[in-house]
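Here we describe the complex-level prediction in full. Unlike the single-chain runs in Section 2.1, the four entities below were treated as one system.
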Amino acid sequence: MSTIPVGILGATGMVGQQFIALLANHPWFRVEWIGASERSQGKTYREACAWRLPAPLPDRVATMKVEATAPGLAPKLMFSGLDSSVATDIEAAFARAGHTVVSNARNYRMHATVPLLIPEINADHLGLLPAQRRALGWEGAIVTNPNCAVVVLAMALAPLRQFGLDLATITTMQAISGAGYPGVPSWDILANVIPHIGGGEEEKVEKEGPKILGALQGGAVIDHPCRISATTTRVPVHNGHTGSIAVSLKQKPPLEAVVDAWQSFRGRPQALGLPTSPPQPVVHLPEVNRPQPALDAARDGGMTVTVGRLRECPVLGYKFVALGHNTIRGAAGAAILNAELMREEGLL
Amino acid sequence: MSTIPVGILGATGMVGQQFIALLANHPWFRVEWIGASERSQGKTYREACAWRLPAPLPDRVATMKVEATAPGLAPKLMFSGLDSSVATDIEAAFARAGHTVVSNARNYRMHATVPLLIPEINADHLGLLPAQRRALGWEGAIVTNPNCAVVVLAMALAPLRQFGLDLATITTMQAISGAGYPGVPSWDILANVIPHIGGGEEEKVEKEGPKILGALQGGAVIDHPCRISATTTRVPVHNGHTGSIAVSLKQKPPLEAVVDAWQSFRGRPQALGLPTSPPQPVVHLPEVNRPQPALDAARDGGMTVTVGRLRECPVLGYKFVALGHNTIRGAAGAAILNAELMREEGLL
Amino acid sequence: MSTIPVGILGATGMVGQQFIALLANHPWFRVEWIGASERSQGKTYREACAWRLPAPLPDRVATMKVEATAPGLAPKLMFSGLDSSVATDIEAAFARAGHTVVSNARNYRMHATVPLLIPEINADHLGLLPAQRRALGWEGAIVTNPNCAVVVLAMALAPLRQFGLDLATITTMQAISGAGYPGVPSWDILANVIPHIGGGEEEKVEKEGPKILGALQGGAVIDHPCRISATTTRVPVHNGHTGSIAVSLKQKPPLEAVVDAWQSFRGRPQALGLPTSPPQPVVHLPEVNRPQPALDAARDGGMTVTVGRLRECPVLGYKFVALGHNTIRGAAGAAILNAELMREEGLL
Amino acid sequence: MSTIPVGILGATGMVGQQFIALLANHPWFRVEWIGASERSQGKTYREACAWRLPAPLPDRVATMKVEATAPGLAPKLMFSGLDSSVATDIEAAFARAGHTVVSNARNYRMHATVPLLIPEINADHLGLLPAQRRALGWEGAIVTNPNCAVVVLAMALAPLRQFGLDLATITTMQAISGAGYPGVPSWDILANVIPHIGGGEEEKVEKEGPKILGALQGGAVIDHPCRISATTTRVPVHNGHTGSIAVSLKQKPPLEAVVDAWQSFRGRPQALGLPTSPPQPVVHLPEVNRPQPALDAARDGGMTVTVGRLRECPVLGYKFVALGHNTIRGAAGAAILNAELMREEGLL
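The structure predicted for the assembly as a whole is:
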């Protein structure tokens, strides 16, 4: 199978670097084009980018020239790690010019005709694309993945929809890598907790969740009726967003049924054997003090969401803890899985 | 006014050290006796104790001899920072022998005739003491303060009882000093979150809360009818337990009324002008990203609980964040305030 | 005694905030004027400044209007916490206009006629001021304090000059507050060591040290002949620069003589009883694992340098560890002490 | 090639766990026997051990029964991660009974007939084994690897012996994993530096270094004549000991020659292609702010020592920074490489 050339928008940022690291040995996709802001253009990637991952910067990418973030010679398949301050226009320009933009930016997530995709949960939301083309007149398309905090919640809740998911509350303890680079100043977060994350983080969790969990009906997504309340905080952790979650389930199942629902949950990525797909997308850990970001976030390449501490909640019914790797399952890995799904569904 | 001699049980531990630091310049109480486990007995306090606070170890205490934890020559007023594994028998022995034990240990907190005291909230629970003497046949008495996580919740909820407090959920992010010393190994908590705290922490929060908020009726405490659900986690912070709290209030007041309730909340310590009493026990911080342990836990000597981020909760009604200093407001300072209250109420 | 009005240049930065915190209750100086960059001008200080210290922002300063950093109505005595990128011109403008600029910026430190002052060590270097006025034609003057890493080294070495100080090596472990705000990104330093500090930190240590330790002769400072080698690193600590130091002393004294030299070291601030002066500027800690930034940096209001672990060095002669609070003893507190000295020497 | 059964002494500790993680997929060695202290004996490894590594506990080992630490049915080749408090007798008992003990414990490192091995540096020190058998009357043998701080220094210095290595000073910033588990309490090290490491860490560095760098002559090791001075400190880092090093080289080579010496340094493991051998044992990083533990310690599976920041030292000649992974290159990986070398040299 010949590999598919891909481009990366916002290649020098934290998510852009994670794209490059994850695609270094990808069996299907090959980075052929990188774009970043004016300051970086014309430099080699090595010059333009302060590489900040423990994984080595691949030599092949290091010597590529950084391009302007405009269509033209870019590959048809584009991954976007653009900052939300610039993503609206740039992503639209690429989609208009016929590119498929698989984006981590928040800008189009809540657009009615843009899939907000977690392939295990709502692979069928790709069915929005014909409506997107009609509505926006684009030759190409935009497909998005959720906010890095939402993905943890949505993965833990999706298997519980069968029990009549009604209400969910989440308090997150989010890693600093979620804020990009330079991101959170060390003076603010070292040995501290900041009980607020800017950019409407809580609203994102409360709104993106029902869309992700919703059903495609008549070419449109009908939000799931569950109500979500989020409190998002920042903690001094490198990678891995932890969520303390409580849920109300209309037909309250026994504890074991909830664990079974998580353990047996599979989706299209597992059925199709997508390269970035984890074997079991939600893994229940029986130990009393897990999941923990330092020990569990990187499981299965960072694509598995781990859950634990399931127990009765005197107020809502059940409560538990969930964890996912925010720059992999919650950003670059999510987008790559989306692109893999699209390829296997014949949409590239 | 002549000072009152006091003794400290469990003097070498984290809470014991905090007692000594806080009493170093106390206007009423003077440490005259220190007791600790067999390993320390007979040594000077300086020899027995690895002093771990930035505040200097007072010279006067440093040279005291550590005594066995048995009554005898100990002062009448005893502060207890004993570990729960030994507190049951030792505290009872002192109370039986006529001492007033003002304890931070959990062992007697839920006993029906033992006051679980936060002087701003339930100073009248000292009215349990006659029943305690009758029930247990002690000449002395035991008075307790709540678990360090409960105190944050209870202080934030007490002013809201007037609105028909019904349900409360809390996810805590607790400081490492709450685990004592050596406490949490650095390998476990550095740049990590541990979503579990041993020793029944969550049960304590769920059970102690209603007792503290309850009413004294006919010489007994009737638990407050609110239901509480707690998830307790450990984060790499030195001091200060943060709680993400949501509440259901039967008569849902406007946001401003909730802020007013906090800001205007005062209790017996403020009325009596107790030395360790903060001028305003609950302080609302208007900044969007407060309270934070590194910035706010030590406010007013660590005796003030700060709250912030009050906003609508789509699930329960209101949500907010509260913070308190766990070894001061949540342990040694709490006990000292209890003793100050007892003195002014003529109970010493 | 009536108080002296002072102004603060660079008032919104980390050092500027520390100036305001330290001057809040100063017996001699009263902040009457604050200046900062264009972005802040015209706002109140509270609006312009993201206050980041645990000490509360004084209300009186919070409501002051931030001025442009130009002379005019500013008080005669100015403290400067300006960034080095702008300090050269602004400080000169103030000095030219007759102000006394007591600066923490590095720009004029190595100028031949500018005192690089640590009052305990070289109070007589104020004797450079007549030459400064002649050389630069200023009505006013600039006086500087050393780099925050140098001050720790210089304070520890000054008492050893009597033994024929010949060589010194230092490896620092510097706190993040030394990088200002936002300073070091948390992604870079959380649970990490960065073995390099930008802006010529090591050169500053190697060059400023001999000037500080040097002698005033004939109206000029003759550098001390010791040779210094510095390696400067950043560690995840809030406040307090630690130095691992080795020295070669020509007449190698016994260990006790070195300890005595530190313990008995006093200077003009102690003789004059300056308000910010620590009672003992260098304190030797006998415990085997001290000094530690978390326990010792804030000693005596952050103005004391602590030393410990003195022992034989197989290569240079002696080695030890020294520690000082970088934003107090190494910045704002240093400048305030300099101004106090100048006032008592009749130079304001 | 059939695999060789191995046993692990001290299997539940930090180093023991690292042995098990590193041997999980080893091409030559297969863990068949695990021994630990009495408390663990008779339990399965999963029951006995609180597994604390992000790498998963291999299922095959998890179900093994923990044995008493006595010879008998144990395999001939034993890895020892024993605590030094018990290693002397246990390791001797195994060696006497004919086992080859490849030990990370310090107890026999400085024994005149025990190789203190870093295979890239002194593979020929295995020539001590005949003398060991004669001297101690053992059927088996003990071979050791250095202290985790020494290995970083020794690897960086070995390539410089050719230039007349004369003096070396090192200040280490050591990771918490070096203290084992539970090791350093979080209260002591969070956002702090502890300028002391117990157990004679500095003496180990100063004494083990010359033995490792020494020459085998007439069946005995002659210490290298360089003099070493060490200051060892603990910093809040998970893995990776950083050293700030200065050296005096008799024939002072140009900077480039030093870099070349590191980059071209190879030893027996590279010649033999040992499985755990890094391709290039010492790697020079040209970036101004490297090596850093968070980015560089895990390079090549944690077996590479990285160096950087080479520059002139005004006092000793040259200075630089070196880094190595303390529980891999400095402990379990080191011992495994030693065993691999012995196998290829026909000594198992």
